[in-house]
């Protein structure tokens, strides 16, 4: 939501917020995004994910070293949540790269 769609310079979230402001109606994608915010009880997990995530695969030894470094001892469920969020983010990043490549190929077809 905070990244720009292929071919645009405006993040999706900004575009949807503008539509809401102009029309007075909340676009369904914006409503879904706003309703799916991280619950207060899990925000600490999300903040830890943001601190840990480096865009690459990780091993449990790296994860344990990171825990030691920040001085936090997470239980199995908390570690699994962070691992799952990392995997989801990697999948999102891959889809995003594919979209950008597809957009670039589409725009370059007539340029030869």
Question: What does it look like?
Answer:
InterPro entries: Phage_TAC_18. It is a single chain. The protein is mainly α and 112 residues long. It folds into 2 domains: 1-37, no CATH class; 38-111. The protein has 5 helices and no strands. It has helices spanning 12-23, 28-35, 43-52, 60-70, 76-108. The mean pLDDT is 85.
Helix-strand blueprint:
Elements: H1 12-23, H2 28-35, H3 43-52, H4 60-70, H5 76-108
Q: Compute the number of strand runs.
A: 0
Principal-axis shape: flat
Ends: how far apart?
33 Å
- Radius of gyration equals 18 Å
Question: Could you tell me the strand content as a percent range?
Answer: under 5%
Provide the residue-averaged pLDDT.
Answer: 85
Unreliable stretches, pLDDT < 50, 5 or more residues? none
**Helix-strand pattern, N to C?**
HHHHH
Helix content: 55-70%
Counting H and I runs of at least 4 residues, what is the number of helices? 5
SS-based structural class? mainly alpha
Largest sheet: none
Number of domains: 2
